[in-house]
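haha ok so turns out i had the wrong file open the whole time. this is the CORRECT one, sorry everyone. sequence first:
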Amino acid sequence: MDLLDWHRGRLSSRRLAVLVKHMPRDSAVARELHGEAADWAVTEHLLAHVVDQLAEANWMFATVNADEDSDPLDYPEPVHRPGQPHEPEQHTASTPGNSFPPPEEVQRFLA
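then structure:
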């Protein structure tokens, strides 16, 4: 498809808008508009959340079963998500990270 078809009148503005709106997530337009977030769908966000929860559960298990005299274990770092800074956040046992996707995105996924 040639964008000059729009200029020549062979492609309507509505059809062009529909084509741009429904481009794949890995298209150059999606990457320009959404940055690295274009690479992640709901599935990737849910999988990263599962990985974080598993790491936290393993940390809890190891902490509970450690010797009383041993040094405390470091809290696990969450999986990096698009749109978040690359520097790891400081977490404590009482404030685990909440990295679940927004409810609207989960609802769209389940619909």
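The helical segments are 4-8, 13-21, 28-34, 42-64, 103-110.
again sry for the mixup
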